[in-house]
Amino acid sequence: MPPRESMRIVPPSGLRVNRQSSVPVHVQLKTQIRHLIMTGSLKPGSQVPTVRQLAGFLGINPNTAAKALAELQQDGYLESRPGRGTFVAERLPAGEGKMARGLERLVDETLERARRLGYSGEEFLATAATRAPVAGARKARRTPALLIECNWPEVSRFRDELEAELPLAVDRMLVEELTERARHDPSFVREYGVVITTFFHVNEVKAALEAESVPVAALLTEANISTLLRLSELSEGTTVGLVCGTPKGTQNLLRSVQSAGLTHLKPVLASADDPWSVKRMLEATSIVVCSEQAAEKLREILPPTVEVIFSNRTLDRGGIDLLRDVLTRLDESPRAATR
């Protein structure tokens, strides 16, 4: 009997929740599943996990998982088939482009909030129409944010992505710089509305800033998901090379693989600044997961028979949507600031 479609959502798909986040868990889960659908990772007609499976995998309350799936069904992303389960809708909601989807969601959520307060849709629309000229006249507010990552190319690229997508004014910092500065003056982060990092570094960042109350947002990345999906397809016992520009970067890459539950692989570690380790790695495998920095250094020495799985990353849509929700809540609180 072939495996059920619902079993195909496994750790490499990127489903995670952050219980310390100001974003409700069901919103985090809903956003990530919607992202998997919109990017084609969950295809139309494929079965999604049951409420019990999602709750067990993520360690959350079944009611939370049920709420996320119910809202996705109401939004037209999922459909229930009696006696069979829940599936990705064959025809997804209309609306092209990320801005259209974001605006639709904003309107839906605002309408729902108005209804909960006792206002009709007509009353909301009439008030919105009268407020539009006033809102349009206001200068857009950019929340000051600190972005932290382990290498300069990615932290720079992520900053550009975030500022293009969200009302943020982003400063950059490397993980080791944060650790050193926080040791001497952890209060420096108080000038920021939010600290942003990736899931791979969130524990380091939170440990460095544990005495401060600034919210820390951890984001997934597109290449993480695609890279881990490819690795999950490899057979039991496959030897895979992991190489970054520095030994610390390679260790971070190893942790990301281990945290995704890919225990069926045999990793061989190397660093692009250590030719001996690269040679040893290539003697052991013809499959290499390679960072952007390492790829530049190894371009001339990697044999054409080697499969290179690039781990250079861009922020995933689900993560950006989650951060947008965080900023909405910040904007409603006294912490919101301008720059």
Give the key terms.
alpha/beta; 4 domains; globular; Arc Repressor Mutant, subunit A; 339 residues; 10 strands; 4-stranded parallel β-sheet; disordered C terminus; single chain; Rossmann fold
Characterization of the model:
- This protein has four domains: 5-88, Arc Repressor Mutant, subunit A (Orthogonal Bundle), CATH 1.10.10.10; 101-137, no CATH class; 143-221 and 316-331, Rossmann fold (3-Layer(aba) Sandwich); 223-310, 3-Layer(aba) Sandwich (Rossmann fold).
- The chain contains 13 helices and ten strands.
- The protein has helices at 25-38, 51-58, 62-74, 97-116, 121-137, 152-165, 175-184, 202-208, 222-232, 247-259, 275-284, 292-298, 317-331; strands at residues 78-81, 85-88, 143-149, 168-174, 194-198, 216-219, 239-244, 266-271, 287-290, 307-310.
- The N and C termini lie far apart (59 Å).
In terms of quaternary structure, the protein is single chain
The 3D shape can be described as globular
Question: Could you give me the name of the CATH homologous superfamily of the largest domain?
Answer: Probable inorganic polyphosphate/atp-NAD kinase, domain 1
**Share in β-strands:** 15-25%
Largest sheet: 4 strands, parallel
Uncertain segments are 1-13, 134-139, 335-339
Mean pLDDT: 79
Describe the strand arrangement of the main beta sheet, using strand numbers. 4-3-5-6
What is the class of the largest domain in the CATH system? Alpha Beta
Distance between the first and last residues' Cα: 59 Å
What is the CATH third-level topology name of the largest domain?
A: Rossmann fold
SSE order in H/E notation? HHHEEHHEHEHEHEHEHEHEHEH
Helical proportion, percent range: 40-55%
Number of strands: 10
CATH architecture of the largest domain: 3-Layer(aba) Sandwich
Count the domains: 4
- Derived from helix and strand composition plus strand pairing, the structural class reads alpha/beta
The total count of helices amounts to 13
